[in-house]
Amino acid sequence: MTGMGSTTGDLKRRDIVLRLGAITLLGIGLSLGAHLSRSGAGPGQSKSGKLFPKLARDLSKVSRIQILGPSNQFELVKVSGKWVMPRADSYDIAEAPLRRLLKAVSDLRYIRALPPPTQQDAAASDIDPRTGGDGVWLSLETETRDKLATLILARRGDRTLVLVSDDSTFYEVTSADWPSLTSARAWLDLPQFDIPPERIATISLTRPRQGPIDIVRRPDGGFAPVGGRANASITDIALVLTRLAFQDARRESRLIGPASFRHETSLKSGLIIALEGYEADGQFWVKVAVDARKAATDQEGQRLAEATRGWAYQVPPKLGTLLSTPTALLLQAGP
């Protein structure tokens, strides 16, 4: 009987082996299914879904954002509940681009997974900016530096591609409302004057070892230097506050030495706004001084003073050069 059939022990051992095999296959199936649920059930197949499905509930944990592009690198850090940029001496971040970025990443949906990079026109080495690629690397982290989402974005024609750090698969994703990822300036909450030309009364420009220039409004509404004729340079100097867009920020204590120029604008309301210019690190920077003692109302002066107190701002090179031009050349400039 023993040689012609299985014993009870043999049957039990076979049953255990079959059960273990089923459990192993189930585990492999679950693992594969979890991957395919994000990768669109295989390269090239269409199936949409969120790239970071858990991020929406963890947005409050995001405390550090790193952005690295082909020509720019900066990070945003949450300190005591306030977002700042360390590279700009911890200057405040504007809320609008931050909201747009967090929403764009948390809502990011893939259309399909693409074939391996070796078969695509966008290999990993072509988009990773850390190795000379043209993409943008993003990392969202917690206060303890745990990564909540890390990805590389790149454009290929009319497609947006994403390479997720923990996955070698490329994903084609839907369009999103991204803030600027290549300009640190776009993230700073820099002050704006928004002063229309008709509010300006007089302007003065003083520099060391140069004669001062006093500019007044002409009857026709234009501007001219006292005792001289109007020209394009004088008009540009008169309208500085109407066109000024700051480029960067730093603590004003980092600017040392005497100012290279002082540009002072008196508004018809009596408010005086002065820009004290300095050259540092090959750039022009200004400190802002607000005098509201003769102003009809001090609300505007208080707002500007609070926004600029303790800070210096980078101005465009063209403006710095204009305000540093010798007086004789400015007064002799053609019409």
Can you offer a commentary on this structure?
26% of the residues lie in helices and 31% in strands. It is of the alpha+beta class and 335 residues long. It has 2 domains: 46-187, no CATH class; 197-332, no CATH class. The strands form 2 sheets. The chain has a 10-stranded antiparallel β-sheet with strand order 1-6-10-9-8-7-2-3-4-5, with helices on one face. Strands 13-12-11-15-16-17-18-14 form an 8-stranded antiparallel β-sheet. The longest helix has 32 residues, at 8-39. The radius of gyration is 31 Å and the shape is elongated. Residues 1-6 and 16-46 have low confidence and may be disordered.
Q: Brief description of this entry?
A:
It is built from nine helices and 18 strands. It is an alpha+beta fold and 335 residues long. The longest helix has 32 residues, at 8-39.
Summary tags:
2 domains; single chain; 18 strands; 10-stranded antiparallel beta sheet; elongated; about 325 residues
**Portion of residues in helices?**
25-40%
Radius of gyration: 31 Å
For the biggest sheet, the summary is: 10 strands, antiparallel
The side-by-side strand order for the widest beta sheet comes to 1-6-10-9-8-7-2-3-4-5
- Described by the principal axes of the CA atoms, the overall outline is elongated
- Give the DSSP E fraction (strand runs of 2 or more residues): 25-35%
Quaternary state reads single chain
Topology at a glance:
Elements: H1 8-39, E1 46-50, H2 55-58, E2 64-68, E3 73-79, E4 82-85, E5 91-92, H3 95-106, E6 109-113, H4 124-127, E7 136-141, E8 147-156, E9 159-164, E10 170-173, E11 200-206, E12 213-217, E13 223-225, H5 232-238, H6 240-243, E14 248-251, E15 261-267, E16 272-280, E17 283-291, H7 299-308, E18 311-315, H8 317-324, H9 327-332
Antiparallel strand pairs: 1-6, 2-3, 2-7, 3-4, 4-5, 6-10, 7-8, 8-9, 9-10, 11-12, 11-15, 12-13, 14-18, 15-16, 16-17, 17-18
